[in-house]
Design a protein that fits this description.
Shape: elongated
Strand content: 5-15%
Radius of gyration: 15 Å
Order of helices and strands: HHHEHEHHH
Number of strands: 2
Oligomer: single chain
Number of helices: 7
Number of domains: 1
Distance between the termini: 24 Å
């Protein structure tokens, strides 16, 4: 187990919390930040954030204007320790948006959210029920 993984496990044991719940809340918080910080023209990009478990979800069929967070929450609810969770947007112009193409999100969405990981984790940990 990585050093960070061991630290998280030790925190969970000390606080007597369900680590899976903390991870789910952290991933959902990060997904929400990515969705909410997405630039909007037609709404198609913002709608096509996807949850994938074990592999990247390449679906891009969600219609413009549809909120992706409900589907992401359903996916995250089934996540188990040891599995890899992916929050992705596979639209062909996603990379350009992430690297500053839009004036609405010049710093992108994913990189900014990753910088905020600790905030999302701390919030999830504080919300966890002992």
């Amino acid at each position: 187990m990585s050093n960070i993984g061991e630290q998280i496990r030790q925190i969970a044991e000390r606080k007597k919390i369900a680590l899976e719940a903390v991870v789910r809340r952290t991933v959902f918080g990060m997904a929400k930040e990515m969705v909410e910080s997405s630039p909007v023209d037609t709404g198609r990009f913002k709608s096509n954030w996807q949850y994938g478990e074990g592999s990247i979800n390449m679906d891009t069929s969600r219609p413009a204007g549809e909120d992706p967070l409900a589907a992401i929450a359903v996916g995250i609810a089934s996540w188990k320790m040891g599995e890899t969770a992916f929050i992705t947007n596979a639209l062909p112009y996603a990379y350009r948006l992430e690297t500053g193409w839009s004036k609405q999100a010049p710093a992108g969405m994913v990189g900014v959210t990753m910088v905020n990981f600790q905030t999302h984790f701390d919030r999830a940990l504080s919300e966890a029920k002992p």
